[in-house]
Amino acid sequence: MTELIRFDQVSYRYPGGLDVLSGVSFEIAQGEMVYVTGPSGAGKTTLLRLIAALCRVNRGQLVVMGQNLATIKPRQVPAFRQRLGMVFQNFNLLYDRTVFDNVALPLVIRGYAHQDIARRVRGALDAVGLLGKERVLPLTLSGGEQQRVGIARAIVTKPALILADEPTGNLDPEMALEIMRGFARFNEAGVTVLIATHAIDLIEALPRRIIHLEQGHVTDKRPRAASELRREPMHGAG
Amino acid sequence: MALVEAGLDRPRWLSRWTQEHLRVLFFSLGKIARAPLAAGLTALVIGIALALPAGLYVAVSNLSRIGYSWQESLQISLFLKDTVASSRGEALARELRNAAGVATTTYISREQSMVEFRELSGFGEALDLLQDNPLPAVIAVTPEPRQSKAEVQALLERLSSLPEVDLAKLDQQWMERLYAVLAIAERAVGIIALLLGLAVMVIIGNTIRLDVEARREEIEVMKLIGAPSSFVRRPFLYSGFWFGFGGGLIAWLLVAVGTALLEVPTAELAALYGSNERLIGLSPRDGLSLVLAGIVLGWAGAFVTVTRRIAEIEPK
């Protein structure tokens, strides 16, 4: 399978802080569904931030979709991020704009024509079960619906890779399971999905590969049964 | 699921560019319109700042125009030698009418000069005591209008070198003083315009800076999903555009109202000096230039501020 993400001895340290990631190496192939797990502070969020070019590796090589992020130029970053779909724990929606405008934003940034935007936004909202709520403001929606707006925004550009950082962190268990199943459906459609989560119970029943982090190190690169992880402490985002 | 649809056609470049800029143009206008009082006050301050140099420009333009009209009443007096016969003097006056830089000429004979002097001077009885007429014949030469000071001076020198001419005289000292004052006034208008232009940029920059801070989270989200700086910057630049446009229109209106209010008293003052000059305000071209200046200053003020501020905002 085609390699989509390659971490090669990647280390990262926040300015003036301790090593968050140290000598991390793994590969993710195109079409994989991968969960990044680990206790709080293990480096899950930092790992996703590195993949999204929100911070730059201190040591090692990180290649994502053919782009070496250790050497990427600042002016290349926006175009690179446009190739990703990102989903966040706190949704990161624009609350003074309608659902339609929020989902349309990545297409507007990429300069699509109005008719294409309308068609794609409807398609994305249909995929997350929110068709008919285009003119609604996000604050009038439930947490689960807001997250689905965020997911629709992530998939509307048909990215090859979706990154999700604790996407179910603010949702009730029922809604969280529905969201995770949604990601699994996207993966079945051919999209590579990488989710940082501590919701082990949710992913237990789903097809998966797990990358488990402990204190900035990958401790087990092989897919693991979620039940093995239950015994480990989990206190929110890493 | 719609995610794996076949690839969609990308829009043509021109259509995409036009659509995006029109969208942001009206999006920015809509945002400004949602806070009409604050936006109106900002535009009013900009308008006043632009109206001051524009009003001074109108004042200086009118003074220059009046100066030129007075220049049209300038005359060069050619005092002819006593040996020049009347017929030759009249012929010379006719010849000079065709000379370069000359509009009209009038020949005043020695006898006519005496008659006029007798009437105007009040020395009639004293003149009767003189055995000969001491006054020379004169050719009054009116230069063509709109000539520069140097051109009029050259004409004067050319005429004074004529063999029939004893003395050529042009009283232009008052004109030189007027032009010196106007030159200072024009320079002052330039300096004031520069300073108030900078003030407009600062006012708009500060307004945009507050807007950037208010929309910090929105900017972070946009950068997260791959918006380039040019995209993030665009709505703020168009806000600067609208503030400058509004300020320019207000400045034009203020100058027009000021001109209208001063028109009647100025005409009355001019009439007291025997002139029919009228105060002329900004022409449509001047007004449009004023609005354009407002737009450029608004855009530039927004650009300087927003470029620096956006570079400082990075997604968390």
From TrEMBL, chain B:
UniProt-recorded name of the protein: Cell division protein FtsX
Segments crossing the lipid bilayer: 37-60, 178-205, 241-262, 287-306
Keyword Transmembrane found: yes
Gene3D superfamilies: 3.30.70.3040
Known role: Part of the ABC transporter FtsEX involved in cellular division.
Coiled coil feature spans: none
UniProt subunit comment: Forms a membrane-associated complex with FtsE.
All residue ranges annotated as the FtsX extracellular domain in the record: 74-166
Principal subcellular localisation of the protein: membrane
The keyword ATP-binding appears for this protein: no
Membrane topology of the entry: Multi-pass membrane protein
Family, per entry: Belongs to the ABC-4 integral membrane protein family. FtsX subfamily.
Localization annotation: Cell inner membrane
Keywords in alphabetical order: Cell cycle, Cell division, Cell inner membrane, Cell membrane, Membrane, Transmembrane, Transmembrane helix
Species this chain originates from: Sinimarinibacterium thermocellulolyticum
PANTHER family: CELL DIVISION PROTEIN FTSX
Span of domain ABC3 transporter permease C-terminal: 191-307
Residues in the signal sequence: none
